[in-house]
Amino acid sequence: MQPTTTAPAPLLSGEITMEELSALIPGARRALFSRYHIGGCQSCGFEPTETLAEVCARNEGIPVEEAVAHLTASHENDLRMQLSPTEVRTLVEADPPATLVDLRTREEFEAVKIPGAKLFSQEFQQEIFGTWPKDSQIVLYDHTGTRALDAAAYFIGHGFHNVKALAGGIDAYSREADPSLPRYKVEFEM
Q1: pTM
Q2: What are the tens digits of pLDDT across the range 14-40?
């Protein structure tokens, strides 16, 4: 399950605002928190208008070049964890198909889902982590693809090495791979 296309990492500098950084690299907050404990809670948070250089300076003087290198490497790793909607459709139609795990709410799942998907729950997670082979082919998805990347990183951190996230979530899947699936908007989405 290797992605067929990857975009180059964006060029970053210390002058980029955290809002711009988050738009360019959706996993930036996760990357900064995992390495430097920045952005994960109120005490280590940042304002959208702060620059990367300002955030680095007030967090033990982290060298901006080091943070940029880490963010770039993390972004490239995130791209390797993603599959395009058409790649996922191929896996759905394969024999045997990949296991699709839907991370959205039960209401969203009941309204629209990719055929064959299973709704994620704590019980299902325990089953996967406790009994499934570590090479199980799993594709995680949510509405827009953001949380699925975090979940894929979590699964990989628990030893599953054949886990991917659907780039753009079910919204992109319904646009690019299966237009018969209705699209929707969520009033409040994280």
Answers
A1: 0.79
A2: 999 999 999 899 889 989 998 999 987
CATH 3.40.250.10-classified regions of the chain: 82-176
Residues 120-156: pLDDT tens digits? 999 999 999 999 999 999 999 999 998 999 899 899 9
Contact 74, 12 (CB under 8 A): no
Two tokens, residue 185: 């908007």
Query: CA-CA distances (angstroms) from residue 166 to 3, 5, 17, 58, 114?
Result: 10, 13, 27, 35, 11
Considering the four listed CATH numbers 3.40.640.10, 3.40.50.410, 3.40.250.10, 3.40.190.10, the one that applies to the domain covering 82-176 is: 3.40.250.10
